[in-house]
């Protein structure tokens, strides 16, 4: 069965294929007018398209551990806001970043979120990317806080910039590639032979060299050299996939998990997007196609997190975590005890704790409590990890009143009987 709405055609119940062949084109009885898809974006388990002046969202087919393909939601959603126009879109978790020659650059948290304007329209700013709660516009980087406010946190000064959560990578125009965490000053020189586009995902960094070949540096500092062919344009990384476009505009993908793999030319047509083991583009009829890449899946990775730094005694505490893909079986632990509630969707997870112990009494004041979260990919890829490879992501927060010195002065080892949720 083919579901068609807003020009989005997705075939339900089709097994994952070993290659990248197109699904059969919809018949004339299913639709009579081909859509005009100008932009495709993937992230947080959904695909976004710009069709005419509409911004449309659709849940991505998810591969299960048995290799099946299924739709989370068969109905396309209209995500357009008022008279906004859209020239480019990027999505990660619940965050949607848009670019428009009329409206400038805006970000919103959730389909119903209120857009916040980051910058006015500018002809010299071309590259945008949303990664967790971080928004990249050209070389300027912004962060959406837990209260919905947005602030600028850094700038690389160049459009040749990429972002993976709290990690920024850029080429400075002198052939040098730099990598730096947004919360620190430890800038790392990655390469000296870059010629433009760069990419980052997890512990991998990729760049186009002056010799026309793409180099991928992994976390162990090994560098893989890939013959990209003539006229390399966009370069990207996603999970175990290196992707790029050639002078013919076609999308190419490479399985980085296999050191003997060779580039594969897809049959998809632009516009393209690649994320979390999927590639999206259009077919010869102009319809959206989302294909599961026949490469090993990677576990979800933590992109960013935010939390309330303190909780009044007996009052609720809240935190938010953003992963590279949708997760399930999310559990919140405080001092090793499973507590609280979790709400998950599209890769963004909200956690909360009511501030009470198992016996219903408020947690003791003057305490510094450690929290952590465990989660698992909905696609059967395993336990989520942070950027250090740990399967538990967390931090500490204060139960007030506390000493002025905060957690450093509180009894961090003071475990409490919080009970189990």
TrEMBL record:
<feature type="region of interest" description="Disordered">
    <location>
        <begin position="380"/>
        <end position="421"/>
    </location>
</feature>
<feature type="signal peptide">
    <location>
        <begin position="1"/>
        <end position="30"/>
    </location>
</feature>
<keyword id="KW-0732">Signal</keyword>
<protein>
    <recommendedName>
        <fullName>FlgD-like protein</fullName>
    </recommendedName>
</protein>
